[in-house]
């Protein structure tokens, strides 16, 4: 009787060896690194949302969203108009924190597209009007009156377009909020439209507090979003939706709500 293995057994051994060799090769091959999502933001401190150094609630929110999605985010501080232009040119994958503006739809995508989904926002902030003490400039919630010059605004901010739509002359400036307040103090502009967080920050400066005041009715209140590049949305639509959904999930979590509430309570009045 022959003790040689049958051809069937030999074929099975050969197949098993092939599988084992393939598995060993796969185990030896290092995992491909995950490509990070590159985000830019305005190189300015807007408390409590963000600082130019990469701290604040926006970064806390995005870091937790990144962990949920399983993709790392990298951050680059840029002047705001350059940040938006970099997203449009696909030099970065997204920009934050941007209020909704139809003109920006050419530069990148909001969650929900043209009918932006406010549930996917990062936060809500307001714009206020500052005037010199003793000035007759008024804002009644519908129109600005008694202006004897333009209203100052920071370059690239959506409030400038909104003011112009109300028939208000606007002077845009690429300086920060404190420099803008000083222009008002020097009489270079008749009033200043400024983000509420910025206004709270500059108002603690003794010279600003002595000379300027904030009108009680906000000019507007807006949600702010993470915009993503059209290229990322086209090439990785599922990832884009997961990122926006993760932002919503984190923002609605009890832990983040507590963190946001504490940060807002510690803001100067």
From TrEMBL:
Residues annotated as domain Solute-binding protein family 3/N-terminal: 53-259
TM region(s), chain numbering: none
Keyword entries, A-Z: Signal
Signal peptide (residue range): 1-27
This protein's name: Polar amino acid transport system substrate-binding protein
Organism: Rhodoferax saidenbachensis
